[in-house]
Design goal:
alpha/beta, Rossmann fold, 2 domains, six-stranded parallel sheet, five-stranded parallel sheet, 11 helices, globular
């Protein structure tokens, strides 16, 4: 095989999770060119890829929108001769692409998402749940099914060498840096904002710690800006940096505190330790960040948890106790422990 098409269009965290696998596969198979099909924004995550990795940006909300867009995309992809298709997404669009190339005699494989196992996980008694295969392992299995051999030995997109700190917001490191990303897409994955503020208030009192706040949209920016006004040693990055610059800055953090969200995965790509906060979801479903420790994945043991694989279901009790009952002091103590700061 000389050319392989790899498909993973979304979501942000899931695309980020493909990188340790794709970079490892490419490293061990330098004779093969790997073309990664993804959304234009997600292409920014592929920092310092191996020389045999290419990115094909497909905007499915514009140029390749709808059923006609899929056909246009297949025709554009067909301009290259692929020996195999590795589908790491396995949704309607990627299945259509696989079918197109399969009719042309191209070998295709798709990720086994383990849907039944994950359904059983969220349906089981909390005391009986067990870790499932990680997404990294599932991605790797797909590559192995087309006969590729490799080891998963990825460390960082910067190859264990921190990039020079050259940032328009902050360009001089003094003391310890803690990143805090307090937001997630779903309520079941978001620690209460007032409790997040308590964490920031406590940490800001320590002049040896600088707190860098990560957020995206206008509402998040407003919240983070309000905290900066109240608390010393705190900087908001919301709306100030490109995603590639944020990831670069994460490589200089001593610790990231994140929800079960994309920021956990971005920090993992640069070998930064992460304390992750879990509510409706659970790391046993296989979505913990690359090389992150389970002991730093914090959550409350409850009979009704986990109740959702992706955190998109409404709380059956209506009050999200899995998040509200996680003590601020527990998170702060873990922060100090990971950073080796005496309490």
């Amino acid at each position: 095989m000389k050319n392989i098409l790899v498909i993973r269009m979304s979501a942000l965290g899931d695309v980020a999770m493909t990188i340790p696998v794709i970079y490892s596969v490419a490293k061990y198979n330098p004779q093969i060119t790997f073309t990664v099909l993804t959304q234009p924004f997600s292409a920014n995550f592929f920092i310092n890829p191996p020389s045999n990795v290419r990115i094909f940006k497909a905007d499915t909300k514009a140029q390749y929108k709808g059923s006609k867009g899929i056909l246009y995309l297949c025709n554009d992809l067909n301009k290259n001769r692929y020996d195999a298709i590795v589908d790491l997404h396995n949704v309607i669009r990627s299945k259509a692409i696989r079918a197109f190339f399969s009719l042309k005699g191209v070998k295709t494989v798709a990720i086994d998402k383990g849907r039944k196992e994950k359904k059983d996980l969220v349906s089981s008694d909390f005391n009986n749940i067990k870790p499932l295969k990680t997404s990294f392992e599932r991605y790797a299995d797909a590559f192995r099914r087309i006969g590729l051999q490799f080891e998963l030995d990825f460390q960082s997109v910067y190859n264990n060498e921190k990039p020079q700190l050259n940032n328009p917001v902050i360009d001089n490191k003094d003391g310890k840096w803690v990143g805090i990303a307090p937001f997630a897409k779903h309520t079941g994955k978001t620690y209460p904002i007032d409790k997040c503020e308590e964490i920031i208030k406590t940490l800001s009192a320590d002049n040896s710690i600088k707190i860098l706040l990560f957020g995206a949209d206008k509402e998040q920016k407003n919240i983070l800006d309000s905290w900066v006004e109240k608390y010393d040693n705190t900087i908001s990055l919301a709306g100030k940096l490109k995603i590639s610059q944020e990831i670069e800055l994460m490589s200089h953090l001593d610790l990231m505190v994140s929800m079960d969200s994309a920021n956990m995965h971005f920090a993992s790509l640069v070998n930064t330790p992460v304390i992750s906060i879990w509510g409706a979801t659970h790391p046993y479903a296989g979505f913990l960040g690359w090389n992150q420790k389970h002991e730093n994945a914090l959550g409350v043991d409850m009979e009704c948890r986990p109740c959702s694989v992706y955190g998109n279901k409404a709380c059956m009790r209506g009050d999200y106790p899995c998040m509200k009952e996680l003590a601020v002091s527990h998170i702060i103590n873990r922060i100090y422990k990971v950073m080796e700061i005496p309490v």
